[in-house]
Amino acid sequence: MKSILLILVFIPQVLVFAQSKKDIKNNKIKTVTENISKEGKTIKDAFYRYDKNGNILEEINYDDLGKIKERITYKYNNINEKSEKVSFDATGKQTAKETFKYNDDEEKSEENIYNGNNILVSRSVYSFNNKGLRKDKKTFDAKGTLIQTKTYQYEY
Is the entire prediction scored with pTM above 0.85? Predict the structure, then answer.
């Protein structure tokens, strides 16, 4: 009987630490706080807030003194694909923003990166082969000039 009791006590902790989207959703976890114990002191390291689908809505990272270092918010489209990520510094000032678009096959087809003033810095566009696998990623600067092409090769 004692071994069964021990298993029941440890199961919730294991599930929280796993932090997979499936575990978050199935266990209806709303928030997770990560703490670090060092030199006899416990300080907050990170905080995460989730929606009912297990998607992360907010992430807060803390410095070595337990003060907010960075805050990140996330938004999702109607089929739970990440559509926006916005980063803020310790004072709450926006430092960056990323937006994401998806094709009809639910593959990420475009990502846009903005600076803290919501001015476009770069745009990346993905193309796919006839099997639905990524063929390439073309990155353009704010003026639309191609600055990089990454190609993907597959071995079957």
Answer: no
